[in-house]
């Protein structure tokens, strides 16, 4: 497992090094805004990969803590531009201070049954009660729905990525970090490749009002390429090559759907980016939108077909 | 040390970023006046100012809240450099403010006097007018604080992590023939309209 992981991280470093060289050459030969943005993205990638490598080296606790922090950041971004009222403060505070720590503690503890219902059931019932006690009925249903949606997406969905670490896949014990690596690699590569294919061959927009950069050429080209890479990674997973390909395809499609849906949410709130945290990438949610949809899909497919 | 911790916690939880829309940061003597909806207001505005302006800029804070308890009092007077005002005094409550202005320092003022939970700033009290009249050389900078009431409303125990921003507008001045109510309303509108452009 360590050998595989070192090999994989080496591969990622080599890939990023190559991208950095190309980015540097481009900035020298024909500088443009796209190239500047590309280089900012590559730089941010280095930081994210370094954090990911560190999480792997230190272990499960740090990985869970990092995803909890990511959830915190995404939820903060989401609720900051979402119109709630001062009367929702208690519900919002509980979402941050109770449900984020509890959800991630359940992963650490391996309490899978409660992990799966904490937010869809318990938070769903508790949060509106906290808000209703303030007695403000204006927009009540919309306010409640916004907070629940934010929590589902930023905490519940995102937490399914580190939850891969607690699945019991027969014959795969102690190697679950590779499942997480598989998920993140396919999702992020799919995002990048769709962007690249879209820039090179993009003609037919899928939903111009929602996300003008998304094209059929980008989705098909980038999606198939990412699926191929996922299939090529079958040897690090408990899957056969054809199963790895289907899993990667499911991740690509779910990730694409997440990007599209969250783009519509963002636009309905009147924003272009979720925030300014990661240079060149917009906010944390701009990077996590596809993960938030892909993680639960991949988690449950793996759990249903492969886990004991 | 407490200042650095406080600033780090503020950034982490509620942001407190500045948007200089109508003016740039400057060491000119100023009175910043802002809408007031939360005890965090003072902290956010303080954190939004550039570091070199903080030692000579004093938030005006209510004695009955910020003067209570040793830690809070220490933060108010030593870290935030606040000028504490006794809201119940029969003497001139503006005296400590004038003292700071006489030293050439700047002030942060919440002219509503108390926290309001409405989305628009409430009626401004007269203090801003008195200071504008007596210190005509001081720039009056409107500031709109966004999201504070959602992050830390009246009666809340902990602030919720919602990003708050401070938008700084173009300075206004008291016109020669302007009445007190007209000036105060104009000042209020200057703060309110800053909140519209996001």
Structural overview:
The complex is a heterodimer of chains A (308) and B (198). Chain A is built from ten helices and no strands. Chain A is mainly α and 308 residues long. Chain A is globular and about 60 Å long. Chain B is of the alpha/beta class and 198 residues long. Chain B has one domain (2-6, 38-196). In chain B, strands 1-7-6-2-5-3-4 form a seven-stranded mixed beta sheet, sandwiched between helices.
Helix content of chain A: over 70%
Number of helices of chain A: 10
Percent in strands of chain B: 15-25%
Number of domains of chain A: 3
- Content-based structural category of chain B: alpha/beta
Largest sheet of chain B: 7 strands, mixed
Mean pLDDT of chain B, rounded to whole units? Answer: 89
Could you spell the SSE succession of chain B in H and E letters? Answer: HEEHEHHEHEHEHEH
Radius of gyration of chain B (CA) equals: 16 Å
Q: Work out the number of β strands of chain A.
A: 0
Strand content of chain A: under 5%
What's the shape of chain B?
globular
The number of distinct helices of chain B, counting runs of at least 4 residues, comes to 8
Low-confidence stretches of chain B: none
| Oligomer description | heterodimer
Q: Level of helix content of chain B?
A: 25-40%
Biggest beta sheet attributes of chain A:
none
The global form of chain A is globular
